Amino acid sequence: MLLSRWTESRWLAAVIALALLLPLLAYHVRRMFAPMHSLFRALAGTVASYRDGDYGFSLSATASGELGELVAAHNRLGDALREQRLALVQRELLLDTMVQNTPVAMILVDPSHRVVHANLAARKLLGEGRKLEGQSFDALVALAPDALREALERGGDGMFTIGDDTDIDNSSEDIYHLARRQFRLNGRRHELILLRVLTAELRRQEVQTWKKVIRVISHELNNSLAPIASLAHSGAELLRRGQHERLPAALATIEDRARHLEGFIRDYARFAKLPAPRLERVPWSRFIEQLHSQVEFTFDGANDGVGRFDVAQLEQGLLNLLKNAHESGSAPTDVALALRRVPQAWRIDVLDRGSGMNEAVLANALLPFYSTKRHGTGLGLALAREIAEAHGGRIALLNREDGGLCVSLVLPD
């Protein structure tokens, strides 16, 4: 009985001691872990700041061991994010400066046809210098010059002129190139419209072209008029001396040079006055037969289809190409015309086995007045290109694998 009471008193004492010591123990434990809790809260706070785009925080802690490594790694992450953010801001500022100061008018339009962004050139062109963001692009276009509105209504890329039609020297006109590109931004389709002023560049090119035209025409005129004048003088001397037997040769040479000059001028006039094509549905069999009656070539391909083109213009263009093929040094039997059906278009190839073209000639052959022939006008390929593009098609030149040249025209249906 006495032992039992003694045991109970010991347990009671232990319980009382434990009740007195537990709050003290809890206090010391909480005090011991307080720096760690504070550090964890700081880590959570900086992570939240990073998530919100604020990278101006770092942690300063005296922790050691794995906890110290965690703080150091966190600070290194913050430094890397700050550097990346700074670099990104600098790139954005550079890009914005370039976009704002480029002479190309740039307008970004959202799916509801509201202006999302417009640079300074666009504001000057469409808004008299005022900001355009948020405005209706259709309303801005409605107030724009007719030429710009018509170019936008046509769709796609193109060129147009804004200015006074009554201006004789076109000094008050501006020539623009319109480019339109569509892409998806934040899952929505946007359109980027670019308007570039080409007036000064085209004026310079125009002057250079005219200088080249004048040089070519002067050279060709001199080549024909000088012998004509000389032979006319010689003919007069032959008449005075009574040497009539030599007159036919002199007159024949004069006629030959005069006809050459006539053809030269006619080619220039045809190139300068090429009208818009009058498109009509034409059976290829009839067209090929008509072309074959004027120049020799072998035909390859199916000619049972129907094309849509201007007969006179396409005939003239192909005659020039076939004539070039015969003058390339190719055997007449190696001059060929191939016709192929391609998706939504027809492809016409003019082939020869001549010497082909080097890279420099290939790069310039389609330019007007460029010719490697001694007496060439440089208009044959240029005229073919003009005809193809007037039909909405294209032309390309490439050397053939076993020698010779292929001139390829693609004409849409």
TrEMBL record:
Boundaries of every HAMP domain copy: 41-86
EC number annotated for this UniProt entry: 2.7.13.3
Enzyme class: transferase
Entry membrane topology: Multi-pass membrane protein
GO molecular function terms listed in the Swiss-Prot or TrEMBL record: ATP binding
Keywords, comma-separated and alphabetical: ATP-binding, Kinase, Membrane, Nucleotide-binding, Phosphoprotein, Transferase, Transmembrane, Transmembrane helix, Two-component regulatory system
Domain Histidine kinase: 216-413
Subcellular localization(s) per the UniProt record: Membrane
Catalysis performed (reactions): ATP + protein L-histidine = ADP + protein N-phospho-L-histidine
Primary site of residence: membrane
Protein name, as recorded: histidine kinase
Species the sequence originates in: Novilysobacter erysipheiresistens
Organism lineage string: Bacteria, Pseudomonadati, Pseudomonadota, Gammaproteobacteria, Lysobacterales
